[in-house]
Amino acid sequence: MAYERVLLQGASKKTKQSLVDAANRLLPTFVKHALWRPKERAFIGRAMLSRDTERLKEDLEIGVRLAQSLGLDVSEVELPV
């Protein structure tokens, strides 16, 4: 994490904005992947959906706090959950 902090300290505003833009493009795909279950597990998947969604929200919030601690302004990141 120390190396990421050093890289981001010297990064331009444009580079930082590119990271936020990439997060907005990739997060919906990440959420779909995280919540996907094979057909064979559809029944249990539906039963677990609320807990899976809750855990995913927690993970995304941790990611936001981590990005903020590295100096990124992630206020424009749209969390898809």
Largest sheet: none
- Coarse shape: elongated
Q: What would you report as the Rg, rounded to the nearest angstrom? A: 16 Å
Average pLDDT rating:
89
Distance between the termini: 26 Å
Number of helices: 3
According to DSSP, the number of beta strands is: 0
Percent helix range: over 70%
Order of helices and strands: HHH
| Helix-strand category | mainly alpha
Residue runs with pLDDT of under 50 for 5 or more positions:
none
Strand residue content: under 5%
List the helices and strands and how they pair.
Layout: H1 2-9, H2 13-35, H3 42-69
List keywords for this structure.
3 helices; 0% strand; single chain; 73% helix; elongated; 81 residues; mainly alpha
Fold and architecture overview:
- The relative contact order is 0.18.
- The chain is elongated and about 50 Å long.
- It has three helices and no strands.
- The chain is an all-alpha fold and 81 residues long.
- It has helices spanning 2-9, 13-35, 42-69.
- The model has no long low-confidence stretch (mean pLDDT 89).
Offer a concise description of the structure:
The chain is mostly helical. It has helices at residues 2-9, 13-35, 42-69. The two termini are 26 Å apart.
